[in-house]
Amino acid sequence: MKQITASLPFELPSRAKILSTVETLVIGPAGGLAFLLAGLPGGLISGSMIAVGIAAIAGRQLTLPPILTQTVLVLLGISLGSVVSRHLLQQVGAYPLTIGLLALATFCSTFGSSYYLQCVHGWDRTSAFLAGSPGALSQITILAVERGADLPGIAVVQTMRVIILTAALPMVLAFAGVAPSVAPSLTTTIASPLDLVELVAASLAAALLLRLIRFPASWMFGAMIGSSVLHGAGWVEGGLPDWVRGVALVGIGALIGSRFARMRIKTLAGHINAALGSFTVAIAVSAIFVGIVALTTQVKFSDVVVAYAPGAMDAMLVALALTLHIDPIFVGAHHLSRFVFVTIATPGIVHLFGRTQDDVDD
Q1: C-alpha–C-alpha distance, residues 357 and 355, integer Å
Q2: Alpha-carbon gap, residue 163 to 217, rounded angstroms
Q3: Per-residue pLDDT tens for 22-34?
Q4: Residue 69 and residue 51: Cα distance in Å, rounded?
Q5: Which of 344, 273, 318, 337 is nearest to 122 (CA)?
Q6: pLDDT above 60 for 205
Q7: By the 8 A CB rule, do 223 and 203 touch?
């Protein structure tokens, strides 16, 4: 019997791991739904992350098994890729000057925040760069796990940026003379059953291909590439159902929150200070470029503010939903461009800073 057990290619999860997973799957959705119903910033992902993070800091050994982590990453990649469309790709080419300045602003903001974290708070270069990268929280988190970076610190810095921006943007827009309005009803087209099968198949194929070449965060990036190609080429219309996307957001939030296990309150307080300082640097750098664009182009100031805000794409889309006088094509094109900048540049630059570790989804 012992020989048979030893020869198995996998081990059955222990009772403790099963209970930890179940506890995570209860706390995460509960926190996400609470934030969603309360209309708080970040919605499902922030609520799930904060709820699981608090429980983890309190001493609960929360975790998600690899199979659930991989599923969440694939679903998230498909959702991110579904943002791409022919019309949006055409619009990206219509703003060469402002998108070029956005690329410069992105890199200046990243390296400025990174330099601040290294000099003032003594962070290592890998962790400082990942924390200073504006947006793409999910991708940054996965890269941080792979490179052995300070994941709790990065999560605090990135999440604080999203929360502050989401809370501050309506006030900035109101100050600019843009009156807030009730959020319009947002409807997302759901792909047909055949298109959904094609999406999943293409995403998994691309993810497996990236894993073969040991590309960082292959499950998510592969799924995003597969989904982007199908949507950008017009071969697939629509995306995942809203509830599936919600599951992915809750899942990634729970995954981030579970990384706070065994983290001390004192450490958390230190990371919050670093988050506020790096956010100030990022805002200052972005403000310079916002001023340049506002003074040299005919673009509305409110559009430039939202387009150049150094936060996460999801948070910016929430801000768009809360305002009727924002150009969704202009802002969407710029946030997609910034997302591409961060996605393409981050793995290569981080490779120069850190050492490779086993993939989080192994």
Answers
A1: 6
A2: 25
A3: 888 898 889 889 8
A4: 18
A5: 273
A6: yes
A7: yes
Identify residue 347 by its one-letter amino acid code. P
Query: H/E/C letters for each residue in the chain?
Result: CHHHHHHCCCCCCCHHHHHHHHHHHHHHHHHHHHHHHHCCCCHHHHHHHHHHHHHHHCCCCCCCCHHHHHHHHHHHHHHHHCCCCHHHHHHHCCCHHHHHHHHHHHHHHHHHHHHHHHHHHCCCHHHHHHHHCCCCHHHHHHHHHHHCCCHHHHHHHHHHHHHHHHHHHHHHHHHCCCCCCCCCCCCCCECCHHHHHHHHHHHHHHHHHHHHCCCCCHHHHHHHHHHHHHHHCCCCCCECCHHHHHHHHHHHHHHHHHCCCCCCHHHHHHHHHHHHHHHHHHHHHHHHHHHHHHHHCCCCHHHHHHHHCCCCHHHHHHHHHCCCCCCHHHHHHHHHHHHHHHHHHHHHHHHHHCCCCCCCCC
Give the tens place of pLDDT for each residue, 149-167: 787 788 788 777 876 776 5
**Average pLDDT of every residue of the chain:** 76
φ, ψ of residue 122 in degrees (nearest 5):
70, 25
The model's pTM is: 0.62
Q: How far is 71 from 361, CA to CA, in rounded Å?
A: 10
Sign of dihedral through CA atoms 148, 338, 219, 210?
A: negative
* Phi, psi (deg, nearest 5) at residue 190: -95, 130
Decide: 279 and 166 in contact? Cβ < 8 Å.
Answer: no
What's the pLDDT score for residue 319?
A: 47
| Distance (Å, whole) CA 136 – CA 221 | 12
Beta bridge partners of residue 190, listed in sequence order: 239
Query: Highest mean pLDDT: which of 151-155, 183-187, 279-283?
Result: 279-283
Sign of CA dihedral 239, 155, 163, 274: negative
**Integer Cα distance of 71 and 65 in angstroms:** 10
> Which amino acid does the sequence have at 21?
T
Q: Name which of 58-67, 211-220, 314-323 the model is least confident about.
A: 314-323
